[in-house]
Design a protein that fits this description.
By secondary structure, the chain is mainly α. Helices cover 82% and strands 0% of the residues. Helix 1 (3-31) packs across helix 6. The longest helix is centred in the middle third of the chain and has 49 residues, at 124-172. The radius of gyration is 20 Å and the shape is globular. 56% of the residues are buried.
């Protein structure tokens, strides 16, 4: 198995587990008596921990190479699965989220840079990464309800830990590629915002807005929304699985688009319209709309990956991507922390309306500040 395929397979396994966690954890926390407001605070820890770990790992990996962080991702996958197996209190679930966030940070610090380096910086390799992530996440979501029925929540968490162990094995198959001796001075140079281009700085702010939008409907919000409408765990898994499969399919199809700016704008309009309507629909229509939303998510992912590939510097892929995503995850953590409170006071329509508004700001501004030629550079 070549290096690119190995890393894509690691991503597949990681995303499969993420798909399982996305459905199983909110329902397990509800069953174990965790309040929805507290749940929001617990879930808000993940993007912050992920980002702090990611920016550190990304900076170090630009010097030491990517392999150690793929290995760390696997070990942390084992630990997080076992913590969730035993967790019954908010503090225990929070500890699990810290491990899961560090695990995700280790992987996302190196997966995009690794693939860009091995593929001559051609941005379409990121489309394959995103498509494989979608398919694996979808399969994990689809199977979660059945795993819970067959193995209960505890057995499902053990299965996720075993997958993490297999990721460790795969990661050791990657070659050692220590790039150069670590230099704190050079690392700080990569992290210096003053050295970044104006477009990069604009998108640091825009990705903060994008993170706000994601957080209002992220984590536990959509699974508990469907649970509140009366859907069973296996049905919730099927809805999310179908949604993500559509997203993966259409992300590949839209990757062939030669009009990236228009795609960003159109996907933003459809995203906002979807969530504006979602909080006011009956259970059947809401479930159908969430499945159809996969079409929209496939569109949005392409514009985001295109942006990442064009505003990062080839000498510091890992650091630049980590910096750019800082705004996203800080915004996501803030809105996730608020979402439980919003739902408890005004219901699910409140975070849905806020995500529609904030994503509209992101998409319209991105359309205005980008030019089509940026996506046609070699």
């Amino acid at each position: 198995m070549n290096q690119v395929r190995t890393v894509l397979f690691i991503q597949v396994l990681n995303s499969f587990v993420s798909g399982v966690f996305a459905i199983a954890l909110p329902l397990m926390m509800k069953e174990r008596g965790i309040d929805i407001v507290v749940m929001g605070l617990v879930f808000a820890s993940l993007p912050l921990i992920m980002q702090f770990g990611r920016i550190f790992f990304a900076t170090v990996s630009d010097f030491w190479g990517r392999k150690p962080f793929f290995v760390s991702n696997g070990f942390l996958g084992v630990i997080s699965g076992l913590i969730y197996y035993f967790a019954h209190t908010p503090v225990e679930f929070l500890f699990g989220k810290v491990m899961e966030g560090t695990k995700q940070g280790a992987l996302w610090a190196v997966n995009r840079p690794f693939l860009l380096e091995k593929n001559g910086r051609h941005w379409r390799i990121l489309v394959y990464l995103r498509a494989s992530m979608y398919v694996a996440f979808a399969i994990g979501s689809l199977l979660t309800g059945f795993f819970v029925i067959w193995f209960l929540y505890e057995g499902t968490m053990v299965l996720c830990a075993l997958i993490g162990l297999f990721v460790v094995f795969l990661s050791f198959m990657l070659p050692n590629e220590k790039k150069k001796r670590f230099s704190a001075k050079e690392a700080l140079h990569f992290l210096d915002f003053r050295k970044k281009k104006r477009l990069f700085k604009i998108f640091l702010i825009l990705f903060f807005v994008l993170g706000l939008s994601w957080g209002f409907v992220g984590g536990f919000v959509k699974p508990l929304f469907l649970d509140n409408l009366g859907f069973a765990a296996e049905t919730i898994g099927l809805i999310f699985g179908a949604q993500i499969l559509l997203a993966g399919m259409f992300s590949y199809l839209f990757s062939k688009s030669s009009h990236m700016r228009r795609l960003i704008l159109l996907s933003g309009i459809l995203y906002s319209a979807t969530f504006f309507l979602l909080g006011f629909l009956s259970s059947v229509l809401a479930g159908a709309l969430l499945i159809a939303y996969g079409f929209v998510e496939g569109m949005t992912s392409i514009g985001q990956e295109g942006i990442l590939s064009r505003i990062t510097d080839k000498s510091s892929y890992g650091t630049d991507i980590g910096l750019l995503m800082t705004g996203l995850h800080v915004g996501e953590a803030l809105s996730l922390a608020l979402s439980g409170l919003l739902v408890s006071i005004w219901g699910f329509a409140a975070p849905f309306l806020l995500t529609a508004l904030t994503y509209a700001i992101f998409s319209v501004t991105s359309y205005l500040v980008l030019n089509e030629q940026a996506f046609k550079k070699p």
